[in-house]
Amino acid sequence: MELAGLPVPVSCGVDWAEDHHDVALVDAGGTQLAKLRISDDAEGFTQLTALLTEHGDSKDHPIPVAIETSRGLLVACLRATGRPVFAINPLAVARYRDRHSVARKKSDAIDAAALANILRTDMAAHRPLPRDSELAQAIAVLARAQQDAVWDRVQAHNKLRSQLREFYPAILSAFADKREGICSPEARTISAAAPTPSAAARLTRRRLRSLLKQAGRQRGIEAEADRLHEFLHREYLHQLPQAEEAFGRQATALLRQLEAACTNADQLETDTRDAFEQHPDAPIISSFPGLGSLTGVRVLAEIGDDRARFATAGSLKAYAGSAPVTRASGKSCKVMSRRVKNQRLAAAGYVWAFASLTSSPGARAHYDRRKAAGDRRVAAQRNLFNRFMGMLFHCLQCGEHYDETKAFASQAVADLPAQAA
Q1: Cα(350)–Cα(358) distance, rounded to whole angstroms?
Q2: 243: helix, coil or strand?
Q3: Which domain holds residue 376?
Q4: N or C terminus of the chain: which is more exposed, having fewer CB within 10 Å?
Q5: Given 242, 275, 308, which residue is the final one in a domain?
Q6: How far apart are CA 180 and CA 160, in angstroms?
Q7: Are 289 and 416 in the same domain?
Q8: Predicted confidence (pLDDT) at residue 302 exceeds the cutoff of 90
Q9: In the listed set 129, 148, 174, which residue is the last one of a domain according to the structure?
Q10: What distance in Å separates the CA atoms of residue 234 and residue 275, rounded to the nearest whole number?
């Protein structure tokens, strides 16, 4: 069916499940053109593409598809075909479902039709999944996996440290001043060799030197062995012998979890850095102060390399959660930080802003000015991150590297009278 020689717009909704998916197609008037249940395999995907082609899908006029997830093989294959894919929040789908049924009944076919109608009526209010390059998608997988591994390492460290406080204060005291604490290779190696304070008290200086070499230490082995020997042979409170032995076995199990988490985080960090260096946006992102290869790859993973994804710098700032949101009702007007945001990008942003304070005079001056105006530390960091996001948007769009004199030119001009005085 055509109007004025043009095909009638058709929208597709897919209600996904683990082993099957329900598909519904509707036209511009809301009439359901087709419905189909497909399997979650290559045959089912072929049936879906054939159904779309039958109703006018083409390379020049692809049928948009709405689905309740942004992950999975079905979504990946749909994105690979070049079709616009919209990931709709399940809560939004539930609200749209009430528009078509007062009985509040739920079924897969009804949800598929609701998804199709969302695109028919409110497509402009939803954002399609970005058309990132294959390398950018691979970087996103690695960067998120590495970030998850770091969080797992922190969780495993906290569990082990909490347990060691109950029966093994010697090992905690020995590595309390170390940057990595009990996550350091030396601490993990010694804890594995002596899982209880009684076993640690039997370690000789010769054995400690051997363990330090086993952990990979190359310098200051003699002095470090003497220091550890002094800590491990001090007087500490002890659990009863059998209880201490049981605590030691539990600590060994927790130590294996920490060892695996540390290994995963280190290996994924290497893989992520290697992939990041291959991306053409890496030199631009790395040119920003405080944005190293690890933090930079997390930023790239979340914003992608689809230049059409964010129309303005403001939309990118809102996505990152750095831009404030204003709530006004009557005479009440409040400006608050955003809670709905990309949590991974926001977490990287705070690290970025904090690291830039020592490498960028302009960033330091901006941060101090926000603090003097009454912002607390977190708010000042978020404001600085918000400014950096605007600069990053401009640099990526124009293909330019970061320039300190341009980035904080207004601040430099404001400081001229004070410097002259």
Answers
A1: 14
A2: helix
A3: 283-420
A4: C
A5: 275
A6: 14
A7: yes
A8: yes
A9: 129
A10: 48
Distance from C-alpha of 282 to C-alpha of 275, rounded to nearest angstrom: 10
Determine the Cα–Cα distance for residues 72 and 414; give it in Å rounded to an integer.
Answer: 52
Q: What percentage of the chain has pLDDT greater than the value 90?
A: 73
The maximal CA–CA distance of the chain, rounded, in angstroms, is 91
- Are 248 and 302 within one domain? no
Average pLDDT over the chain reads: 89
Query: Cβ(328)–Cβ(338) under 8 Å?
Result: no
Q: What whole-number distance in Å separates Cα of residue 165 and Cα of residue 245?
A: 15
β-sheet bridge partners, residue 22: 15, 37
Indicate whether 212 and 299 sit together in one domain.
no
Please give the C-alpha separations between residue 100 and each of 26, 96, 118, 144, 168, in angstroms, as whole numbers: 14, 7, 11, 38, 63
Cβ–Cβ under 8 Å, residues 310 and 301: no
Closest CA to 199 of 233, 164, 162: 233
Number of H helices, E strands in the chain: 19, 9
Residues 257 and 206 placed together within one structural domain of the fold: yes
What domain count does the chain have?
3
Tell me which residue of 70, 126, 139, 82 sits closest to 296, measured CA to CA: 139
How many other β-carbons are positioned within 10 Å of the β-carbon of residue 404? Answer: 15
Q: How far apart are alpha carbons 377 and 190 in whole angstroms?
A: 38
What backbone phi and psi angles, to 5 degrees, belong to 340?
-90, 110
Higher pLDDT, 82 or 413: 82
| CA terminus-to-terminus distance, the chain | 77
Q: Which residues pair with 36 in a beta bridge?
A: 23
> Are the C-beta atoms of 93 and 114 separated by less than 8 Å?
yes
266 and 339 assigned to the same domain: no
Assign 85 to helix, strand or coil. Answer: strand
Q: Sign of dihedral through CA atoms 417, 419, 420, 421?
A: positive
Can you say how many angstroms the Cα of residue 107 is from the centroid of all Cα atoms in its chain? Answer: 33
Predicted structure pTM score: 0.84
Top-confidence residue, 105 or 206: 206
- My answer on whether 352 and 389 are in the same domain is yes
Place 418 in a pLDDT band, splitting at 50, 70 and 90: very low
8 Å CB contact between 393 and 316:
yes
Tokens representing 250? 């539990």
